[in-house]
Amino acid sequence: MRPVIGIIGNAHLINDSYMVQGAGDMNMRAVAEVCEALPLIVPALPDTSEIASLMGACAGFLFPGGRPNVHPSHYGHEETAAHGAFDRNRDALALPLIQACVAAGKPILGICRGFQEFNVAFGGTLHPEIRDLPGRMNHRMPPDGTIEEKFALRHDVHLAPGGKFAQVFGAERVRVNSLHGQGIELAGSRVIIEGYAEDETPEAIHIAGAAGFAMAVQWHPEWNAAHDSVSRPLFAAFGDALHA
């Protein structure tokens, strides 16, 4: 029997009127094909989801990307226009779930917004717009082009020698895509940054002292996960932790 991976859902509107919860096909296929697990969408509705029950139902969790950002009140900042849209329901579910999983040794993987949630869950802060910082490049999704062009590899990530990510990838430098606006300002108390983009933007983290797999990346490894030389080993390592 395949282990169940809960994929935290994102809220969106159908026909500008009907609210639904969903998860990207790419995330679900990565879980099914590379992790050899059963993907299960977990609605980001904290009043309908009990963390203890979720943890009993799922062997691990994937915290994927999403257009809304973590609300700055969770890390002591004031809301501004630069922070963009929010999903307070996802905040209310994801942040305590990350903490509970780390404490219990439940395997978790964070992607993009999920990467930022890992940091905020342990007391870290976020920049609202990376490209506005001196010396930083534009990490946002290209506005034009095909989906293949938007997810194309755009910059290198330099990894700490001998670190967890270098061990997973078998390399100290990997090339990744880039589709985010926000990023880590100050790392949380247990957040270990092991990977940086060429402009020093944090790109790969893990949670110190976690009893189980607790790693997150700022890029989107779900794209072409079954075949990409960087994406596949990351999801495979996550899957190994689940099966173990």
Helical stretch tally: 7
**Beta-strand content:** 15-25%
Largest sheet: 9 strands, mixed
Mean pLDDT: 95
Helix content: 25-40%
Q: Which segments are poorly predicted (pLDDT under 50) over 5 or more consecutive residues? A: none
3D structure, described in words:
- This protein is of the alpha/beta class.
- The protein has one domain (4-243): Class I glutamine amidotransferase (GATase) domain (Rossmann fold).
- The chain has seven helices and 13 strands.
- The strands form three sheets. The protein has a nine-stranded mixed beta sheet with strand order 4-1-5-6-13-12-11-8-9, with helices on both faces. Strands 2-3 form a two-stranded antiparallel ribbon.
- A hairpin with a 6-residue loop joins β12 (202-207) and β13.
- α3 (88-104) crosses α4.
- The longest helix is centred in the middle third of the chain and has 17 residues, at 88-104.
- The radius of gyration is 17 Å and the shape is globular.
- It starts with a strand and ends with a helix.
- The model has no long low-confidence stretch (mean pLDDT 95).
